[in-house]
Amino acid sequence: MTVFILSVILFLIGLYGVLVKRNLIKIALGFMIMEYAINLLFVLIGYRAGGTAPIFTQDVSGQIFVDPLPQALVLTAIVIGLGTTALLVSFAVRIYQKYESFDIRKIRELRG
Asked: Whole-prediction pTM value?
């Protein structure tokens, strides 16, 4: 139960970075922290104490298996998260090239 709470705390740290920080790089890091907190939560949901890998052998009666579905979803989410993170960083680089600042307040002032 403690690791679930720590996963939620990690998500809240990322949410704090997204909502409060004004630097685009820090906002991107907040999104990444939130993403990995959710991935960690999915893996923890599929975990079973004393479970073995979900590979069927000759005798599977009475064995506890780890749920493989959350692991597969997390692998897919990691790939999608990498793409969105690359897109977010490329937007930040283009904004920096245009406005020469990562600060959101300065970018809003320069809008025109």
From this structure: 0.82
